[in-house]
Write a structure and sequence with these properties.
Blueprint: H1 4-21, H2 38-77
GO molecular function: peptidase activity
Pfam families: DUF3311
Transmembrane segments: 7-27, 39-61
Length: 78
């Protein structure tokens, strides 16, 4: 079943892949950040962003599973 939470989970998990596979968007040296060319700091930024997005997806998944479990218990008791 497709729910809004599952759509957000999918977007959180797919975004890093799209960002990293679209090399043409970051295959350049400018702008430089503290002496590091864009190509490198962009990828390092996505390491951090991927961690945050994966944590968000995990928490949403836990909440979704808990809600499904509670809904099935409530339906079975009636």
């Amino acid at each position: 079943m497709v729910t809004p939470a599952r759509v957000v989970i999918a977007l959180c998990l797919v975004a890093p892949f799209v960002a990293m596979l679209w090399v043409g968007s970051y295959a350049k040296t400018d702008p430089v950040f503290i002496g590091i060319p864009f190509f490198y700091w962009y990828q390092m930024l996505w390491v951090l962003l991927s961690t945050v997005l994966t944590m968000i997806a995990y928490k949403l998944w836990q909440r979704d599973q808990r809600a499904r479990r509670d809904a099935s218990k409530g339906g079975a008791a009636q």
